[in-house]
Amino acid sequence: MGFRSILLEGDSLSIIKKLKSYREDRSILKPISQSIRLLESYLPFCSSYLPFCSKRS
Q1: What pTM was computed for the model?
Q2: Which domain holds residue 41?
Q3: Over the chain, what HEC string results?
Q4: How many structural domains are present in the chain?
């Protein structure tokens, strides 16, 4: 059983923007973005921003 694609959803717009950008990432998240870029070279990749909604009483 293998993966056919990568879907990344997150509530941090800055991280999603970093992954969509072609600039070199110099942040603390560089190892994560490099790993995703490596996987992206083998599998289709899609990312989307999902705003965080909290329930308040």
Answers
A1: 0.57
A2: 6-45
A3: CCCCCEEEEECCHHHHHHHHCCCCCCCCCHHHHHHHHHHHCCCCEEEEECCCCCCCC
A4: 1
